[in-house]
Each structure stands twice: as structure tokens, then as C-alpha cells.
């Protein structure tokens, strides 16, 4: 269960560490900007990035906020979205002053639905 403190941290944190699974079963771990919206995490990446390729072949992921003193660690299911909703676009604009629609490199949105809160 997400506590009010966890929710505030998920809404305010700039980065999370995302773990995806490579085809050979090895983990792939990267820091990435994200927004938290309607109990889901949204990330932007390149269509051909390692994380996007990994998610297409295995949607199971884990992520953690950067703060190791008061960890938030979740497992979830990721999917690649064709387009961002106006709410997702607005959330990135508000948090990072970044219009994701105009970025030709980071043109792929990953949606993560948490399935289990580990910490």
C-alpha cells in the first residue's frame, strides 16, 4: 500500500532507477526521469533504447526512487504507449518544463503499472 509520504515522494522525485530484463535474463538498470500520474509511472525513452526493447520482450520491471535512506521500491508491468495522453504531456511539461511531443529522440512513452510494493 502506498502511504501518503510515499505518494508525495513519487510525485516530487525527478528520477527513478528502472530495472528491465535483457533477453539473456541479465538485469539492465538505468536512472530516468519520470512522472507519477493516476497510480502509474510514465517515462520517455527512444524507441530503440535497450529498456524499450527489453520491455517489448518481457514487460516485468522493478523500480526504485534514488533515496536509499527511505526507499520506495516497486515491481510492475510495463507497456509501450503509442502516444501520450494530454495529461501525461502536461505532467512532463509541469515537472521538467519539457514538451515531450517535440522531442524527436525520446519519442516513446513507457507506462508502468505497479503490481507489488517491496519497500
What's the layout of helices and strands?
Layout: H1 4-12, E1 15-21, E2 27-33, E3 35-37, E4 40-45, H2 50-57, E5 60-65, E6 73-81, H3 86-96, E7 108-117
Antiparallel strand pairs: 1-2, 1-5, 3-4, 4-7, 5-6, 6-7
Question: How would you portray this structure in words?
Answer:
The chain is an alpha+beta fold. The protein has a domain at 1-78: Roll (Pnp Oxidase, Chain A), CATH 2.30.110. It has 3 helices and 7 strands; from the N terminus they run αββββαββαβ. The protein has helices spanning 4-12, 50-57, 86-96, and strands at 15-21, 27-33, 35-37, 40-45, 60-65, 73-81, 108-117. It has a 7-stranded antiparallel β-sheet with strand order 2-1-5-6-7-4-3, sandwiched between helices. The longest helix has 11 residues, at 86-96. The radius of gyration is 14 Å and the shape is globular. The model has no long low-confidence stretch (mean pLDDT 94).
Summarize the structure.
The protein contains three helices and seven strands; from the N terminus they run αββββαββαβ.
CATH topology of one domain: Pnp Oxidase, Chain A
In the CATH scheme, the class of one domain would be Mainly Beta
What is the rounded Rg? Answer: 14 Å
Q: Helicity level, as a percent range? A: 10-25%
Second rung of CATH, namely the architecture of one domain: Roll
Largest sheet: 7 strands, antiparallel
CATH superfamily of one domain: Electron Transport, Fmn-binding Protein, Chain A
Order of helices and strands: HEEEEHEEHE
Strand content: 35-45%
Which whole number gives the mean pLDDT? 94
Query: What order do the strands of the largest sheet run in, or round the barrel if closed?
Result: 2-1-5-6-7-4-3
Distance between the termini: 10 Å
- Give the beta-strand count: 7
Amino acid at each position: 500500500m502506498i502511504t501518503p509520504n510515499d505518494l508525495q515522494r513519487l510525485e516530487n522525485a525527478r528520477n527513478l532507477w528502472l530495472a528491465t530484463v535483457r533477453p539473456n535474463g541479465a538485469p539492465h538498470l538505468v536512472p530516468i526521469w519520470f512522472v507519477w500520474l493516476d497510480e502509474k509511472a510514465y517515462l520517455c525513452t527512444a524507441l530503440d533504447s535497450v529498456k524499450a526493447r527489453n520491455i517489448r520482450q518481457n514487460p516485468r520491471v522493478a523500480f526504485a526512487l534514488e533515496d536509499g535512506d527511505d526507499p520506495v521500491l516497486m515491481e510492475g508491468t510495463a507497456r509501450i504507449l503509442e502516444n501520450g495522453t494530454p495529461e501525461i504531456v502536461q505532467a512532463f511539461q509541469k515537472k521538467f518544463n519539457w514538451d515531450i511531443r517535440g522531442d524527436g529522440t525520446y519519442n516513446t512513452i513507457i507506462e508502468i503499472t505497479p503490481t507489488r510494493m517491496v519497500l
